[in-house]
Amino acid sequence: MTTVLTSIREFEAVARDRLDPVHYDYFAGGAGDEVTVKANEAAFARLALLPRVLCGAGSPRIGVTLLGSRVAMPVLVAPTAFHRLADPEGEKATARAAAAAQTIMIVSMAATVAVEDVAAAAPGATLWFQLYIQPDMAFTEAIVRRAEAAGCTALVVTVDSPAHGRRYRDVRHGFDDLPDGLCCENMRDGDHEQARPIVMSPAISWEHVDLLRRMTRLPIVLKGVTHPADARLALDHGVSALYVSNHGGRQLDTVPAAVDLLPEIVAAVGGAVPVLVDGGIRRGTDVVKALALGASAVAVGRPVVWGLAAGGECGVARVLGLLRDEIEHTLTLCGLASLGDLEPGLVRPC
Prior knowledge:
globular; single chain; TIM Barrel; 12 strands; 12 helices; 13% strand
C-alpha cells in the first residue's frame, strides 16, 4: 500500500480493485434490494452536529471501559467472516492491528483462522468471541470452552439470524462455499478434518440464552437487538450488554438504520447495561453522533475488511487510526473535552 489513503471510502475503492469480484460482493452486499445497507450510511448523513465554541476543552480524551476492558477509543472491530478472502493472514492480521490500536476485536465464529491461533498471533490483544447458538448445545458448549481457553473475555451472541439472509449478489455468483483450503476454523469438531456448517435455527429462543448464561461466566452481549421490547427482555435474562445491529443489512431487508433505532434501545435499558451499535459507520463524525445518541461504543465491520484487502495488517491499522484521529478532531471542533461530555443535544436532524 504505497498511496496514502485518507478515508474509508478510498480504502473501499482499493479493496474493490484487489478483491475477486465475487468476494467483494460477498463483503459489500446485503439482503434483498439492499435497502437497509444503503439506509445505514444515509442515516448518518441526515444527522447534523451542533458544536459549542470557546469551551477551553483542551485535547479530548476518548478512552472507554467496556465490560472491564479499557480501550483507547470507542471503536471495536465488529465480527466479520472470512478474513482470509481479503488477505492471506486473515484474522491474525486484523487482531494484530486491533491490539496495536488498543481496542477490542470480536472474533467471528465464521473466522477462517481458529480463535486459538488468532489469540496466539496477537499476544495481549483483547478479544471477544461472536457466537451463533447452535441447536446442538453440546457443540455450542465446546465452542464456548475454546473461546474461554483462548482468553476471550466476552461472548457476543448474534440473535438476528434464525435463517440465512437472502443475498442476491451471492446467488448470482453462485457463492455458497469457501475456496479450497479455507473453512470456518472454529466449526471444527474435535479432530475431524471437516468443519461443521453453521446452523441458523428458528427454534433458538430466550431459553437458549438462559442455557448459555448457565454455561459460562463470561459476559454475554446480545447482537442484533432492534426492538425495545427485546432490549427489556434481555435485562431479565442477565445479559451484560446490548448491541444494536441490523447485521449490516445482510439479514432482513428494510429494517431501519441501526443508528435510528439506537435512542429507543438506550431509553429501554435506562443505563443498566452498555449499548453498542454498528452499521454504516464510515467517519469519526459518525462515531461521535452515535455516542451522542447514547451508544457506549461502536463497531466497524466492512471498513476493517477494506483495510485488510488494501494493505493487510497495516491497512487495518490505518483504518482504525483514521477513525481515532477523526473522533478526536470532531470532539475538538465541538468544544468537548471527553466522551463523557457528549449528549443528545449535539445532534439534530438535517
